[in-house]
Amino acid sequence: MSTGARTQATIGLGYGLAAYLTWGVLPLYFAQLRQVPALQTLAHRVIWATVLLALFVTVRGQWRAAIAQLCAARLRWFLLTTLLLSTNWLVYIGAVNTGRVLEASLGYFVTPLVNVLLGVWLLRERLGGAQRFAVGLAALSVAVLVIGTGVWPTIPLLLAGSFGTYGLVRKRLAIAPMTALLVETALMVPPAAVFLGLSMAGVIEPPSVFGQSLRLDLLLLASGAVTALPLVWFGHAAQRLQLSTLGTLQYLSPSCSFILAITVLGEPLSRWHVVAFAGIWIALGVYATAAARQQRRAGAQ
Fold first, then answer.
1. Cβ distance 29 to 261 under 8 Å?
2. Which pTM value belongs to this model?
């Protein structure tokens, strides 16, 4: 590897760490907004993220590309990704609001394996023996958690299903991440603005909390930055790092959330959670190892 390539890889690693570590500590941020209804937090997140993304696109002179994405052929796909992304964000905010960060982290640990299942089901991709074992072990681990706790894992399945499907559709669209995200958040803005307007007018309950506390107002305004900036950093990382490196980094986020849930946020960790998470970590290790070997073989050909 040349000196320039190593420098770019180092820069990319810095961006990747910044993105995934920020996503990993997001529970601490959203925990400060627990008194704000989840729908209101989501609406503010959408509006302020759109404002910030629009600023980025303006600075980069990419408005023509962003507008071009709204052609009729792609609009229906953007409506689907917008629905999936807003669902994912709402479920995640609701999980933090109700003290279920542990379940949210489980969802993001399972997401890569959901991506595998979607690839097999929809794209007719084939799995090797180690990959089939990894998917089976993950499914067994989730089943153990359900049987042991007697609680259906709604939050993990919704998070993994919505984000896994979102990633699949976005991959097929093959559009620059920042431009695509701007289109998606912009499509969310009209319903978000109407909802906030009605809540501020007291037409719907609960009434808006915006304007009642400077601290909460600043936190809600910051939701645009905590949404957009990690995605911008991720885009820079994706341009400079190998997919295998990005694939390893993606486990930083749910790992941080897991640790924060049982330490700082004080969520209980039962033996069933320990068994389930251990099984999923082993499954992810087996799958990542198999994927790395497959990539090395492909590179050697």
1. no
2. 0.87
